[in-house]
Amino acid sequence: DADAVVSEAQDLEKRIHTLSGRIAQLDMNLRTSCDDLTAIRDSMTRLRDAARAIPAGDARRGAAERALYQATLVMRGTGPAGALDGYLKPPQNGKFMKLFLGGAVELASQRQENRLKVKEEYYSFRDRSTLTYVAWPLILLYLNKQRKVRIDAGIPHTGVSLVTIFPVLVQFYWVWMLYFYAALALRENVLVANGSSIRKWWINHHYYSMGMCLVVLTMDVQSDACLNYMSRFLVFTALQGVVMLVQNRYQRFRMYTRVAMGKASPMDVAGGEMGGNAGQLKVLYPLLFGLQVMQVYFGASVLVSVALEHGWIDDKHDALILAFLELVEGPHKRLGKGAPRDLDITEFFREWQAPCAGALFIVMGAGNFRATIQTYMNKRRYAKKAKMA
Question: Cα(205)–Cα(236) distance, rounded to whole angstroms?
Fold first, then answer.
């Protein structure tokens, strides 16, 4: 009846006021806890530096480092509350995230299950994309070989044929690569905001890769410079994709083991592409270093090819340069003859894409090598501290 409805409505009003007060108190307590955790994290960083200043043989240094190590384990999830990274004061969005999402969007989630879903979705995206990452360059290499056979045989290529459609397939490939690296950069920025310890370089590597894709998309896909660069890049990406498959399969299980042992945060992710993250299998280091050397080598070969083609290298260096190029692409014939020519700015900006892409390849290879070395050294230091604890 009407009296029962009024009574129930008034009771509901009281209950929701009570719940609102409880939630307000919980929110205040949570904010206080987040501020306290952020202050504790800053204190841990300060104390680590202070502990390193204590003489190596002093027992107090070992006691301080052991206490900080145990505190780090609790922060990573060995305590009753699980991983505490999500309760830290979230950092401001970087320039890349502000460009796409703005600065008001908070990327961090306080619920552990939501953060783990983000991590698993990232793994799922990498698994799906890696198969395409390997298959597409192999298909393009095969089609490019068939295209050259048709051209050398003098087969007419009017209308829709492999010769005419191949440049379109190359453009689609670079558009997909641009999407792939942009998606990785977005997802890894979100993971970092939620407590993942992805090295900044590996995210910057995606930015460089996006820039390289944009550079190559502006090239004339039927030019010799583009085809020479593309063939080297396709070989490299196919090999890199194989390493990614190995890392996706084995590194993930190793990372789960490290999380269970308290050696890694639940939000840490296994290395992708050429990234030697914490917990890297030792057998993969030679593969990573080999790919990084190859990356620098291919980038340098592109720069040398462009310089040799335009006659920017004098005759004194011809023997060394030609030997270098023959290692990459077989016998090479110099197009420019005579004395070296001065750099024509107009000519350079008309064909700037190949040297720019080659330079980016060198920068990424050198940066990957440096980051992998740092990861290896950190791995050794971490193992030493674990023994002390």
Answer: 16
285: closest CA among 211, 357, 221, 371? 371
Q: What is the pLDDT of residue 180?
A: 94
CA–CA gap between residue 86 and residue 74 (Å, rounded): 13
Reading the block at residue 154, the tokens are 């003098």
pLDDT of the residue at 207: 93
Question: pTM for the whole thing?
Answer: 0.75
Which residues lie closer than 8 Å to 18 by C-beta, 6 or more apart? Answer: none
Residues listed for the chain: 389
The residue whose two tokens read 């660069």 is 229
Which of 184, 177, 280, 302 is CA-nearest to residue 237? 177
Rounded distance between C-alpha atoms, residue 65 and residue 311, angstroms: 60
Contact 370, 297 (CB under 8 A): no
Query: How distant, in Å, are the alpha carbons of 71, 104, 265 from that of 262?
Result: 11, 34, 7
Query: If the chain, 389 residues long, is cut into consecutive pieces of 10 residues, what is the mean pLDDT of each piece?
Result: 86 90 86 85 88 84 87 79 74 82 78 83 88 89 81 69 76 91 91 83 90 86 66 83 79 70 70 53 76 86 74 52 47 45 50 82 89 79 63
Give the DSSP per-residue string, 243-301. HHHHIIIIIHHHHHHHHHTTSS-TT-----TT---TT--TTHHHHHHHHHHHHHHHHHH
Q: Which of 132, 142, 224, 214 is nearest to 174 (CA)?
A: 214
Report the pLDDT value the prediction gives residue 334, as an integer from 0 to 100.
Answer: 45
Short-list 24, 122, 85, CA closest to 264? 85
**Distance (Å, whole) CA 299 – CA 296:** 5
**Residue whose tokens read 């206080």:** 32
DSSP, res 159: S
Question: What 8-state DSSP symbol labels residue 158?
Answer: -
* Max Cα-Cα span within the chain: 106
pLDDT at 388: 60
Res 315: pLDDT: 47
The residue assigned the tokens 């609790």 is 74
Evaluate whether 237 touches 294 at the Cβ level (below 8 Å): no
CB 275: neighbour CB atoms within 10 A? 22
